Amino acid sequence: MRVLGIEGTAWAASAAIFEADESELRDPSAAASGDHVFIETDAYQPDSGGIHPREAAEHMGEAIPKVVERALDHARERAPDTETGPPIDAVAFSRGPGLGPCLRIVGTAARAVAQRFDVALVGVNHMVAHLEVGRYFSGFSSPICLNASGANAHVLGYRSGRYRVLGETMDTGVGNAIDKFTRHVGWSHPGGPKVEDHATRGTYVDLPYVVKGMDFSFSGIMSAAKQATDRGTPVEDVCRGLEETIFAMLTEVAERALSLTDADELVLGGGVGQNERLRSMLAEMCTQRGAEFYAPEPRFLRDNAGMIAILGARMYAAGDTLSIPDSGIDSDFRPDQVEVTWDAGEPVARVGGDADEIQGAEALVRFEGDRVIKERRPRSYRHPKLDERLRSERTRQEARLTSEARRHGVPTPVIHDVDPRDARIVFQRVGDRELRDGLTEERVRAVGRQLAAIHDAGFVHGDPTTRNVRVGAGDPGVFLIDFGLGYYTRDTEDHAMDLHVLDQSLAGTTDDAERLRAAVADAYRTASERDDTVLDRLDAIEDRGRYQ
Ligand SMILES: C[C@@H](O)[C@H](NC(=O)OP(=O)(O)OC[C@H]1O[C@@H](n2cnc3c(N)ncnc32)[C@H](O)[C@@H]1O)C(=O)O
Ligand SMILES: Nc1ncnc2c1ncn2[C@@H]1O[C@H](COP(=O)(O)OP(=O)(O)OP(=O)(O)O)[C@@H](O)[C@H]1O
Ligand SMILES: [Fe+2]
Q1: Is the distance from CB of 180 to CB of 206 less than 8 angstroms?
Q2: Which of 25, 47, 264, 342 has its CB surrounded by the most CB atoms within 10 Å?
Q3: Does the annotation place 150 within a ligand binding site?
Q4: Catalytic residue from among 320, 463, 498, 503
């Protein structure tokens, strides 16, 4: 089978030919290597500033027909002499997300080629293509996927028919954040490679580090970076601080997602994935926790039609094609809207119950009778200064808020001893399993009430996932643990984010998420002193299309 892929969501006017037989489609090791994917790309380079949608669309209009013809020439060369039919079996195109004017040109081109050869048309989600290309070449069965691209940043995991968003940026994509900073210092687009180059000569400087559960945001760190250069901090040092901070955040959320889902495979996708420092941090984190890591070669990381052709071929083989009237583009196409029709592996099966020792997202937890010793071990992927700061701050905060929550009637472990320097807490053992291994409606209702109680008391948990709730016998036998990411706030957005983190973790750990999410909201509404403002904000957060 030979499939033409067309990509053109923003800057890359790209066409590719992917050729594979049935066995190679399922098992890339049967294929020689990525060498058999032919990719032809014509990049749009803005004269000044960032990507202008109109200019980018003009570029697509000129470049797409040319790259498509070159790819078709390649397909004709590959066709055996005996072949008389069309040189391709299907046309796959990037349907979204991306810039509307660019996507429309890609869609029109794809429809025209499909009609010209009378072959099938396949609409591919660009973000899913970014992660599936890594999954394809790695041969991993159930990986966690980190997408680090220009307009996006998110961590995904597959569960019952869809990729679930376990965490994502609350403001801009990671590459766009970097590019905004480089525009501020007067560098041409794209800024990512320039930051990478300057960072190698810089000394680390501290910048704000923002992780909420598995979500994160870049706006604070970007303003701080701009201010630092305005004040005269050498730009090399700011670049180094930026890389160390932003990539540590992405690595941390990837590790949290591995921990929550018990997965032991990670794949990387997206243009920012070309950064060596990011790749080395992810590789080191995976080695440290005994997981496997795979990053595709750079030509499959940045926007390219190869990834569209590869996923398009697998969708085509599964019969997942579009009729021309149904083939409209979708500039806000989210990865969790895609119904996965091709083989996307199975979630990891878990055996519940406690072992003597548990490796959490970042701490090692040991049980000694009715006591628990929790140690935040150093993370060698992080810059030592950042590592020390995070471990001691979080240990202090965890001890403080765990006790404060108890004072407000929320069951939490009694603290016996705290040592922020060694990042160690000794506290009471509570429950006999994690909520993810004992999910019931009654228990998630209790969590909804407990979150309402701490919010009314003026703070958030910061990471209320199904791992950070312990359950056991008794009434209601539900305990909140792990307040390390908590902080004092009465801001509606912060309170709603707590509920959003819980929602995302339910979607990532159970097939019954919808019913349980409704139960949380209902219990929260009844218990909260506030009216519906927090729940309204939660709806707004979950509706936000974060493609800027
Ligand atoms: C929707 C689609 O159009 C968009 N595509 C996109 O953003 O292009 P992509 O090729 O995945 O990523 C480009 C980004 O990747 C950054 N980048 C490239 N090389 C880099 C490097 N060495 N270090 C850091 N960032 C890098 C660039 O600065 C730019 O922001 C997306 O996937 O979000
Ligand atoms: N007090 C406790 N009683 C019983 N089990 C606990 C207790 N504290 C932790 N655990 C168990 O250990 C697991 C990991 O602990 P925890 O979530 O605190 O670590 P972590 O995720 O690495 O934390 P952080 O990301 O804040 O460093 C929990 O999911 C829970 O099952
Ligand atoms: Fe992309």
Answers
A1: no
A2: 25
A3: yes
A4: 463
